[in-house]
Amino acid sequence: MGGDAHPTHDHGRGGSSEVWEVLLPLTAVLLLAGAYLLLVHRAHGRNPVRRWSRWRTAGFLTGCALLGAALLPPVSTFAHQDFRGHMAQHLLIGMYAPLALVLGAPVTLLLRTLPAARARRPTGLLHRRPVRVATHPVSALVLSTGTLAVLYSTPVYNATMDAPGLHRLVLAHFLLSGCLFAHAIAGPDPAPGRPGVPARLVALGVAVAAHATLSQLMYGGFLIDVRAPVSQVQGGAELMYYGGDIAELLLAGALVATWRPSPRRCARTVAVHQSLPALGRLLLKPFMRPG
Asked: Which of 186, 159, 168, 27 is nearest to 101 (CA)?
């Protein structure tokens, strides 16, 4: 961590370059939102009775809005000039937008729009071993949270400041790994082989501890290689600490809201409930009057 001025990206000084820096992410976000709304329309056309949840749609569109806010000015401009802006962009792209996008259940929506024969292929893909490994909470934890130590404790972050292409790759990694982790913890989409709630809570707890530890090391300037003024690094560390906590609390709330007991457990619960009246009559029989 140094006290020198924070470097800025060299995106070109021409006006056309600045236009593309706005036009490309805006177009991508609008296409993403439009594709989702098109799937919603097709799902309603295939089954008008079983309407797609408006909350799911609102969640996905909120994720698109958060993603657009992170990729467009003023946040994107702030991120190029100040480490605190970078951290705000990281939180939006890597934690808040992924949670909202995942809660939109895009895979489930896609499966609803496909005929049964065509839906077997993506469903079978979800059961493949590489996909099951990648969507496991431990794998998602390593890809999303574990790589942060590599980014900020090595020269990688400083390299992104001098290479716009590398910076875009890092942002794409934030988004994809964030979606992967949100899906592994609380995603409503199908996830064959996903462990139970206790294991997912442990993974979430490890993520909370890792974020807190890294942000505290960053604030103190220990084991951190970020070429920026101390005030910016400490401000970014505070954003990571408090903003990460809020995002992880939201993720925990989503886990509780989307949790469904397994069919076996439901069957056991129903059997117990059905046996309670008979058991109660049996226990009370000695105290009941005949006739």
From this structure: 186
Supply 44's token pair.
Answer: 């309603």
CA distance 159 to 154: 10
Centre a 10 Å sphere on the Cβ of residue 182 and count the other Cβ atoms it contains: 28
List the pLDDT tens digit at each of the 291 positions of the chain: 655 555 545 444 456 667 888 999 999 999 999 999 999 999 998 888 888 999 999 999 999 999 999 999 999 999 999 999 999 999 999 999 999 999 999 999 999 998 888 888 888 888 899 999 999 999 999 999 999 999 999 999 999 988 989 999 999 999 999 999 999 999 999 988 899 999 999 999 999 999 999 999 999 999 999 999 999 999 999 999 999 999 999 999 999 987 766 555 444 444 434 544 544 444 344 434 443
Query: What DSSP assignment string belongs to 22-48?
Result: HHHHHHHHHHHHHHHHHHHHHHHHH-S
CB-CB contact of 240 with 224 (8 Å): no
> CA 238, CA 232: separation in Å to the nearest integer?
10
Residues 6+ apart with CB under 8 A from 39: 106, 109, 110, 112, 113
Give one word for 259, left, alpha or beta, with left for phi > 0 and alpha for psi -120 to 50. beta
Q: Is the peptide bond before 188 cis (omega within 30 degrees of 0)?
A: no
Backbone phi and psi for residue 204, each to the nearest 5 degrees, phi listed first: -65, -40
Backbone φ and ψ for 155, nearest 5 degrees, come out as -70, 5
Could you tell me if 138 and 185 are in contact, meaning their C-beta atoms sit under 8 angstroms apart? no
Alpha-carbon distance values, 211 to 70, 127, 141 (Å): 20, 31, 11
